[in-house]
Design goal:
The protein is an alpha+beta fold. Helix content is 35%, strand content 15%. The chain contains three helices and four strands, in the order E-E-H-E-H-H-E. The protein has a four-stranded antiparallel β-sheet, with helices on one face.
Length: 118
């Protein structure tokens, strides 16, 4: 599970192909509830891949504000699945640190997107 940054702007918010100039902003391992939240966002933005694997979804400031509110309220959806492990609630501090980094990247003009490969 990765948050990536790019100086590219993409025509779509989902299912786009990033170029070569992509960097890793943040990494999670076995945090299925965050993945479930991102999967919901992906479909809300028009994503079509049913298993939501190896396809990006952009994260805007509005998305980050909603994610932050859901993390603080304990509202990430309980998510299970193959290779996912389990979220135990201890991830919140790291998730909020990611949001801070993502906001800085957006202010700097970068596109932030989530990408998972499982």
């Amino acid at each position: 599970m990765y948050a990536m940054i790019s100086d590219e702007s993409f025509e779509r918010e989902v299912d786009f192909k990033p170029g070569q100039d992509v960097g890793e902003l943040h990494y999670w391992r076995k945090h299925p509830n965050l993945h479930g939240w991102m999967k919901t966002l992906y479909f809300e933005k028009g994503g079509e891949q049913q298993d939501f694997n190896c396809t990006p979804v952009t994260l805007t400031e509005a998305d980050l504000a909603r994610l932050e509110a859901d993390i603080k309220a304990g509202n990430l959806p309980s998510t299970e699945g193959f290779f996912f492990g389990a979220s135990d609630g201890s991830e919140s501090e790291d998730d909020l640190a990611f949001i801070a980094k993502a906001r800085e990247a957006i202010v700097d003009g970068d596109t932030v997107f989530y990408y998972a490969w499982w």
